[in-house]
Amino acid sequence: MTETTETTETAEVEVEAPAVPATPAAEATPVAQAEEPLENEGEIAADYLEELLDIADLDGDIDTYVEGGRAHVSIVTDGDQLVGANGEVLDALQELARLAVMTEAGKRSRLMLDIAGHRDRRRKELRALAEDAIDEVKQTGEAVRLSPMNPFERKIVHDVVAAAGLVSESEGEEPRRRVVVRSA
């Protein structure tokens, strides 16, 4: 009788197991696991930045999202004092937020911070600048050296140039590092 009871219990477990929708959960788990640490990074940074805004008595709504394998934090505000000249305050706040994430999460963060839509506007300007340089290189055959840029800005230009089938490289030392656009 004991053997029959054990077999029956095992059979009941086997019958119940297929009823659980394991396939959809198994497919969603790697994506959820990949985004979860990034969402956590965004939340840590958002909490840190919210405290800074409170200390400075500045208004701003904070939004977090994950895109392109990075945590993104956006501060929606009317003023540009958190952006600073040429985005210098924005860059400093981004580094502070990354340090806050590293301190709490124990790993380096590639978090991106945008304030008052500055990075989105700058991205559009840089794409136009890159397209102008591409046109000039195609017309003259001569290399075009652009003004010094930070790594975020250079990456945008490199991507536009590569998509156009030309070659670009960075030259110089920070903070005077610039992109040079050449024909392929």
Map the helices and strands.
Blueprint: H1 2-19, H2 22-56, E1 61-67, E2 70-76, H3 88-105, E3 112-115, H4 118-140, E4 144-145, H5 151-163, E5 167-171, E6 178-182
Helix pairs in contact: 2-3, 4-5
What does this structure look like?
With 184 residues, this protein is of the alpha+beta class. It folds into two domains: 2-116, 2-Layer Sandwich (GMP Synthetase, Chain A, domain 3), CATH 3.30.300; 120-182, Ribosomal Protein S8, Chain: A, domain 1 (2-Layer Sandwich), CATH 3.30.1370. It has helices at residues 2-19, 22-56, 88-105, 118-140, 151-163; strands at residues 61-67, 70-76, 112-115, 144-145, 167-171, 178-182. The strands form two sheets. Strands 1-2-3 form a three-stranded mixed beta sheet, sandwiched between helices. The chain has a three-stranded antiparallel beta sheet with strand order 4-6-5.
SS field, number of helical segments = 5
Helical fraction: 55-70%
Order of strands across the widest beta sheet?
Answer: 1-2-3
Radius of gyration over all CA atoms, rounded:
25 Å
- Outline: elongated
Question: What oligomeric assembly is this protein in?
Answer: single chain
* CATH top level class name of the largest domain: Alpha Beta
Overall pLDDT metric: 85
Main sheet properties: 3 strands, mixed
Report the uncertain regions: 1-29
Distance between the termini: 81 Å
Instruction: Report the β-strand fraction as a percent range.
Output: 15-25%
Structural class: alpha+beta
Short description:
The chain is α+β, with helices and mostly antiparallel strands and 184 residues long. It has five helices and six strands, in the order H-H-E-E-H-E-H-E-H-E-E. It has two domains: 2-116, 2-Layer Sandwich (GMP Synthetase, Chain A, domain 3), CATH 3.30.300; 120-182, R3H-like domain (Ribosomal Protein S8, Chain: A, domain 1), CATH 3.30.1370.50.
